[in-house]
Structures are given as C-alpha cells and as structure tokens.
Amino acid sequence: MDLGGACFTIGLWFDQPVFPSVLLAVGDVLVAGGGRYEGDVTVGPSDAVFAGGYDIRGYRSLDSRVVEGTMAGTVEGTVYGLRLRLPGAVGPASVGFATTPAAVPAQEHPVEIDMAADMLLFCLDDLDRKDRKQAKARERALLRRMKAVCAALDPAYAVVRVESGDPSPAPAVLAAGTEGLGSSAFVSHRLATRPALVAPIAALALLCKTQDWGTGTQYEWGPARADRERGALIAADRAVSLAVGRLLATR
To answer: Whole-prediction pTM value?
Structure first.
C-alpha cells in the first residue's frame, strides 16, 4: 500500500499459529484501539507459496465491509493484505506479509504493519517546537499500536524500521548475523527465559530502556546512550539477535 510518504514499519514474527488469519487478528487489535478497516482486503489460496505479495496467483479483493465483523473462519482462503485508518497522529496503515529471499508459505513470512512516518525521518533537533511536538506524539502513537499487538497476540519478536529498504527479518536472517533486531525491539517472555537467551537478554537490558508489555519486554535504545555506547549496543543486539534466530530457525 502506498502511504504517500515515508513508512514506520512494525515487523512481527509469529512462532505460534494465529487462527483463523494472522493478518485479520492484527487488524482486529488495531481496530479495537480505535482504527477502522477501509478499502479492499486481499484474499488468496491458503496453500500459496510466495516470496512477495505479487507472486500470489488466484488472489481476489473483498470490500473491507464484507470482512469486518464477520465470524471467525468465514472468510474463505488466507488474507494476504488489508488496509486501515488509525486515529489521531497515525492515519493510514496497511498490514501484510514481508518479502522473503525465497518462496515460502505465509506462516514463514514476517508480518508487517506499515504506517506513515514522515516527521520521524528528521532529527528532532532539526525541527521547530511545533513539529518536534507532533513528531514525538506520532512516535508515541505508533509505539502504542506495537504494544497493543504484542500484548494481545504474543509474537516471538517484533522490530521497528523507519524508511528501511529491507524487509523485516525472519529467524534465518537473524541466525545468519546479517541483520539485528535493532533499536526498538520486543522479545517474548517465552523466548527470553530460554537458557540460550538468558545471558544475552540480561546484557542488552543493562544498556536499554526496558518496558514490560505483559507478554514480553520492549528494549529501546535511548538517544544519548545510542550515541555514547553505540558499539556496546550493537554488540548486545547482535548477540540477542543471533540467539533468537538460532532458537527459532531450528524449530
């Protein structure tokens, strides 16, 4: 979906099935927080194997009013994309599957929520007082959506990307060491208590601002610490990312 500018992307990896549709489940959480479905919902065959959304054959579009409010399981096939409008400082959003290096089934794709984020591309120091206030309000609103989805659906992990050309990483990408979870990540308590993650998670937590979101913890690099201790943060993030990736890639 073209949001008409820069995107703030929340990437989610679900290591447990979410029925009847993971994208509808994410959409329903966002609607419960004040959003509304709008436009079309893309539905396709449940057995599709694809790298990107345009590879899916036999997909069709349904009016969101047909999908919204229907009983669970009554939409035939798998939902591959939907649009919403979120309240306040957020605006239009889309939910879909991230692109993967190879063609795989839907359950092996990260889920992505794309939201408009134009002001977040600027250093806050470069903005005047009014724009700085608006940028901070938008960032808080975006992170509230991330928290709501993580608390309700308990993904294994979640990441944030602002105008990144790279798709949200699947476990195999983390395990290969080519990408990390990044500066605003969520890790489920289910993973954080596994022996391979206890020490790396503890080291990362010492360097980050942490928030317990019920099902897991968010790890945020503070701006001052990110400048002062960037090397240590990158190393700690890489250690956690490798452990998370290896744990999930071998399931």
So the answer is: 0.88
